[in-house]
Amino acid sequence: MAGRRPCGCSLVRLLQQALVAAVLVVIILYRHGHGFSNLSSRSSASRDVDAFFGSPPAATNARPPASGGDAASATCATVERMGEEAAGQGSPEAASLRVRELIRHHFELHGAARVRALPPHEFCEQGFVLGRASEAGFGNEMYRILTAAALSIMLNRSLIIEQTRGQYPFGQYVSYTNHSFTLEEIKHLWNKHSCSTKYGRDLSMRVDNFEHPSETNVICSDWKSWKDPIIWFNGTNDSVGTQFFLKNIHPGMKASASALFGLPDSSDARPNTFGELMRAIVSPSRTVQEAVNWALKGVNPDIALHMRMMSSRPVEARQAAATCIKRAMQICRIQGTPQGTPRVALVSDTPSFVQEIKSDISEFAEVIYFDYELFANGSDLMFRNDMPLNFRLTDWGPAPRWAAIVDFFLASRARCAVITGAHPRVGTTYAQLIAAVAAANTYGQEHSGANFTFLSSIHSSLLVHGLLTQVGRSHIWDTYAGPLSCEHQPNQCAVTPLLPPTWWDGTWQSPSPRDVKRLSEYGIQLPITGEVDESQLVAHCRSREDHVDRYNILSSYMKNSTVL
Ligand SMILES: *[C@@H]1O[C@H](CO)[C@@H](O)[C@H](O)[C@H]1NC(C)=O
Ligand SMILES: *[C@@H]1O[C@H](CO)[C@@H](O)[C@H](O)[C@H]1NC(C)=O
Ligand SMILES: *[C@@H]1O[C@H](CO)[C@@H](O)[C@H](O)[C@H]1NC(C)=O
Ligand SMILES: *[C@@H]1O[C@H](CO)[C@@H](O)[C@H](O)[C@H]1NC(C)=O
Ligand SMILES: *[C@@H]1O[C@H](CO)[C@@H](O)[C@H](O)[C@H]1NC(C)=O
Ligand SMILES: *[C@@H]1O[C@H](CO)[C@@H](O)[C@H](O)[C@H]1NC(C)=O
Ligand SMILES: *[C@@H]1O[C@H](CO)[C@@H](O)[C@H](O)[C@H]1NC(C)=O
After folding, report:
1. Which residue CA neighbors atom 6 of ligand 1 most closely?
2. Which residues pair with 175 in a beta bridge?
3. What was the pLDDT predicted at 30?
4. Closest ligand 2 atom to the C-alpha of 156?
5. What is the pLDDT of residue 489?
6. What is the C-alpha to C-alpha distance for residues 67 and 203, in angstroms, rounded to an integer?
7. 169 close to 135: Cβ distance less than 8 angstroms
8. Rounded Cα–Cα distance for residues 84 and 36 (Å)
9. Mutate to test the pocket of ligand 4, among 134, 140, 147, 429 (most ligand atoms within 8 A of CB)
10. What does the alpha-carbon distance between residue 175 and residue 303 come to, in Å, rounded to a whole number?
11. Which of 458, 484, 504 is the last residue of a domain?
């Protein structure tokens, strides 16, 4: 340190700038060959944006497109522009209904009703995937269960949802599908059928820790060949874990992942996989449902707005959200129609914010929200008083936990659009799942859900450095947070994919330096364009051994960790 010369800082900066420019040129040249040129025509035609509310702002900070709308000359894009690309072509409805059928068929074969009744020699051959959640954030914990469900489908195994002291996670407030097992039942049946002694199959569980990049086998191993009766894919509290299988080097694994999540580089809309899974597996308890009905008074909202404010209340966040509600009204064609005023459900962790935005929008919208104090006062359906712990207050707000779960199912009744807004980061796992479940509720209905729209409201002060502050793998805009997002964007109300992307294969996606570093820990050398070099992955996997963590379930979780 002491011997180092002071840097010629201006020279360093100049070099940095030159490097950034070079990087952008490389990305743009690269993207040019990848179905980039029809972007501009699609982005203005496919979504309803009229003169009254204005069209999405053009990319700032970019050279003006040539007169033919040559998108390739832009060096960056706004979130709205990115959203048009991210949401993909066409409606996700058809792909989602295909996944719904896949889920239904899976549970018909591997659901508890059939597997429970199998003769011992068949039962003892069955495989299971464990879903294990605690009761931290609702979105993150639900993703753990949904990840297990997705993996059970990919691997042709049955689903176990673990209970703690006889209770499912959030079991007071939600019910789970009766297609799943509990671990207790599996242990019981394993003993009853003498699977260990008679059929030589010990009840072992293989644990794969996704949060330990050097240990997880998510890219390199053929999980279909794993013999352990139970598999637990641990550490998957968002949509990223299962979608890592889209780059697994074994064709069978990749094919199963693609069947559930669509092809990552396809320009068609991807299925609403987590919405379909949640719809199939989780439903509100009777009491939560009654609270939702009490708040709705029999009519579903047209639009739901979720604002995660973490106790802050910037006025521009409100303004941006109000504008986004108006855009949603246009998309839903409920403006100036005979049915008149749209019903907008408001959900926030910050109750004072709800009051403020209510006064902003009540001129043109009928506002619905769940007033938990009023409900609790007039109802004998009280839950135990589960106030958030002090250290969680900023994260979850001051309301009791059950109110957030009522809010979740209230917002997921929106029939036409869900808007996620926030300060500072947009598109939490909670908001993602609200939109996903709301969409799933509309798909396949007589009045087709093909027009269901998920929007992100991001106010301009969050976009000073483009999407760079929206990073974090569980957040919805993470894969767009690299150098291709324009700085100093005006307020954005962007169409948002229902299935958050995990990889960077699409136009305008680019990894942030943080993601490049993170992915390198998994052995993935991510170039600035974000495209994964599959032959590099194969070489990486060849130099690596499977990491095995194995527990014996019947002898109370004794660990046997080895590297095979
Ligand atoms: C699961 O629930 C459905 C309807 O709620 C019922 O028809 C079915 O019999 C149940 N299956 C089992 C195995 O309990
Ligand atoms: C999944 O299980 C079903 C029925 O047990 C079987 O027909 C099918 O071939 C299996 N698929 C794979 C990929 O193992
Ligand atoms: C599951 O993951 C958590 C967090 O990554 C870790 O602390 C825990 O030890 C893991 N459990 C097992 C059994 O490996
Ligand atoms: C997921 O869980 C890990 C630890 O279990 C935590 O560090 C991480 O912040 C969680 N992700 C989110 C988005 O909360
Ligand atoms: C709840 O009921 C009590 C007594 O009936 C009343 O004093 C209080 O104002 C009520 N609170 C709300 C939020 O309605
Ligand atoms: C969906 O959009 C189509 C045209 O884009 C329109 O004809 C149809 O009425 C809309 N459906 C609903 C339920 O709004
Ligand atoms: C641990 O696993 C290895 C290989 O699977 C096995 O040979 C060994 O007996 C196991 N040890 C214990 C204590 O279960």
Report:
1. 178
2. 283
3. 54
4. 1
5. 97
6. 67
7. yes
8. 12
9. 140
10. 25
11. 504
Confidence of residue 42 (pLDDT cuts 50, 70, 90): very low
Residue at 227 is within a domain: yes
Domain assignment present for 194: yes
Q: Tell me whether residue 152 is in a domain.
A: yes
**Secondary structure of residue 242 in the 3-state scheme:** helix
Q: Are residues 258 and 307 in the same domain?
A: no
The verdict on 368 and 273 lying in the same domain is no
Residue 415 confidence (pLDDT): 93
Average pLDDT for residues 547-552, to the nearest whole number?
94
C-beta of residue 20 within 8 angstroms of C-beta of residue 510: no
**What is the end-to-end Cα distance of the chain in Å, rounded?**
43
Note whether 271 and 393 are same-domain residues: no
pLDDT tens-digit series, residues 369-382 = 999 888 887 766 55
pLDDT score recorded for residue 396? 67
**Whether the predicted pLDDT of 495 surpasses 50:** yes
Q: Are 363 and 459 found together in one domain?
A: yes
Say if residue 100 is in the same domain as residue 171. yes
Helix, strand, coil percentages (3-state) for the chain, rounded to 5, are: 45, 15, 45
CA 181 to chain centre: 25
Residue 171 lies in a domain: yes
- Residue written as token pair 């959900």: 347
Note whether 439 and 431 are within 8 A (CB): no
Band (pLDDT 50/70/90 cuts) for residue 67 is: very low
Instruction: Give the number of domains in the chain.
Output: 2
Please state the atom number of ligand 3 nearest to the C-alpha of residue 549.
14
> Atom 11, ligand 3: which residue's CA is nearest?
234
Expressed as residue numbers, the domain containing 206 is 93-282+542-562
Q: What is the best residue among 212, 234, 473, 550 to mutate for testing ligand 3's pocket, by most ligand atoms within 8 Å of CB?
A: 234
Give the pocket of ligand 7 (CB within 6 Å).
560, 562
Task: Give me the pLDDT at residue 20, please.
Answer: 56
Report the C-alpha gap between 95 and 59 in whole angstroms: 31
The lowest-confidence range among 37-46, 76-85, 128-137 is 37-46
How many whole angstroms separate alpha carbon 460 and alpha carbon 493?
A: 11
* Same domain (yes/no): 479, 557: no
Beta bridge partners of 418: 304, 454
Mean pLDDT (whole number) for 141-169: 97
Cβ atoms < 10 Å from Cβ of 426: 28
Tokens read off for 154: 């990919």
Beta strands in 274-396 (DSSP E): 282-284, 303-308, 343-348, 366-368
Where residue 530 falls (left for φ over 0; alpha for ψ -120 to 50; beta otherwise) is: left
Q: Could you tell me if 291 and 276 lie in one domain?
A: no
pLDDT tens column, 234-289: 999 999 999 999 999 999 999 999 999 998 778 899 999 999 999 999 999 998 99
Q: Which of 457, 476, 504 lies at the terminal end of a domain, its last residue?
A: 504
CB-count exposure of residue 13 (10 Å: 0-12, 13-18, 19+): exposed
Let me know whether 202 and 97 are in one domain.
yes
